[in-house]
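To fix ideas at the outset, we first show an illustrative case, written as a sequence plus integers encoding its fold:
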Amino acid sequence: MANKAIKYRAYPTAEQSIMFAKTFGCCRKVYNLMLSDKIEGYRTTGKFPAVTPAQYKNEYPYLREADSLALANVQMNLQAAFRNAFRKSRDKNNGFPKFKSSKHSHKAHTTNNQKGTVAIIDDKYIKLPKIGKVKAFIHRNPDDSWVIKSATVSQESDGKYYISGLFEFDNAENTYVVDKTNAIRLRF
């Protein structure tokens, strides 16, 4: 199995743009809350506590408006940042995780596909959880055998939106085969 990402230009409605902005903000808020609690827990106990996005939803009810899988991916991103910061082999020069700023942070969130919650519909729309059908320019259709695993919604600094779909496909479909004359052919 192999993965391939295809990035599509999205044209959300005004309501969908507001929902994207809310989700970006909620993801940043949860990341900063979890990082703050991990730092505070280390100061008091000497160990980094386990934190989840669900523990903040009672104190911050607006977090319920955002896609729960996007918030879960934020938790996984923070865990990866801690793993990279404390990795023994320092092949990358990763420092301690930093708080995300509303002015300088990358506006993006990733959601996972669960039983068809993310899909390409009619070669015109991309379906996302809690957002619905977002109009998009589908310049490349995935093969029928490809399975969509996740979608990342991002906003560039010029205000344009993009949705990047991550597809999983069988690697045997696109393999190189060497024949007896040592010429390489691509099998389709």
Q: What stands out?
A: The chain has two helices and nine strands. The beta strands are 2-11, 107-112, 119-121, 125-128, 132-137, 147-155, 161-169, 176-178, 184-186. The two ends are 16 Å apart (CA to CA). The helical segments are 14-45, 68-85.
